[in-house]
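Ticket 4471: requesting a sanity check on a complex prediction with nicotinamide-adenine-dinucleotide. Repro inputs:
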Amino acid sequence: MSILITGVAGFIGSNIARCLVQAGHLVIGFDNLCRGKRSNLAGLIGHERFVLETVELSDGVVYREALARAHCHEPVTEVWHMAANSDISAGIADAGIDWRDTFMTTFNTLEIMKELKIPVLVFASSSAIYGDFKGARIREDMGPLLPISNYGAMKLASEAAISAASGSWLSRAFLYRFPNVIGVPATHGVIYDFIHRLRVNPAVLDVHGNGTQQKAYLHCDDLIDAMLFIRAKAPENFTYYNIGPLDMGVTVRFIAEEVAALVAPCAKINYGEDSRGWVGDVPKFAYSIDKLRALGWKPSLDSTAAVRRAIRDIAEQEMASCDKP
Ligand SMILES: NC(=O)c1ccc[n+]([C@@H]2O[C@H](COP(=O)([O-])OP(=O)(O)OC[C@H]3O[C@@H](n4cnc5c(N)ncnc54)[C@H](O)[C@@H]3O)[C@@H](O)[C@H]2O)c1
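Returned structure tokens:
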């Protein structure tokens, strides 16, 4: 019996793989390495309970062949579908990116799971499906769902396709609506971006937007803890949960100041004028996680503590990558 993780070489996929292998599962990881890296899987590559394959998941034929081969060798009992485009701005400029990497990877996952009779799907959804609720705490039953990015639109379309599959052949589906998730190995995101820019020019940090953007941040360790908790405890066969911290989040100004204090204390921070960072950005976002609290889970870190820990860890990651010959 094995578990397939798609997008395994990315930030969240690699952390999940480590966790599932440590728990004794046999893990097969697929990734096309467009944004993920082999180095994110240090300690897993070569492990007897882990296999990495480079697979383009938007190509149904290639994906089917790879999964059928793996399934024949060791039956795959569930799929954790983490692969997607993680560059929301790139998807605004070219809607084809999210069509291919965010939606088609999900569509193909479902088609192949159906054919191979794989009964359980765990899906990485996002707060981006909700659109802009102007900072109100978002509950799972709020609507209408009007995403403002192609990324959000293709995540919502993916949820819809999974819902339809659950209505016919898929035995169990877990839709996890992530907030901003932070930690290492960081591949993208505001903290990673600020650290990178300050290392290139320690004198100045130009911030997109006026710094008042406020969002909920969750550490990746808490995210995975919640995912496993829901997987074990949720009674429904088709279920969807917001996963996040209990607080209303922190501002971009707070993050910029904390990053600068650690990486380049003399940096001048310049803010823009717009209240949002870029087209497609939801400037203020917080979750209600009452549904998850009722199931019995709570996070160990709030947004402030998660951001501070991630800043330290990502700065260390980037120093280590520069030290390498
Ligand atoms: N990090 C966050 O804050 C956050 C928030 C909400 C949702 N999510 C979702 O969680 C999942 C993981 O995100 P992440 O932060 O680890 O991003 P990531 O970019 O680090 O990982 C995504 C992985 O998917 C792979 N991939 C993308 N398109 C592919 C394709 N066509 N074929 C094969 N592999 C492909 C990439 O190479 C990458 O390794 C994604 O589905 C993302 O949308 C993340």
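Notes from triage: The radius of gyration is 19 Å. Leaving this open until the requester confirms.
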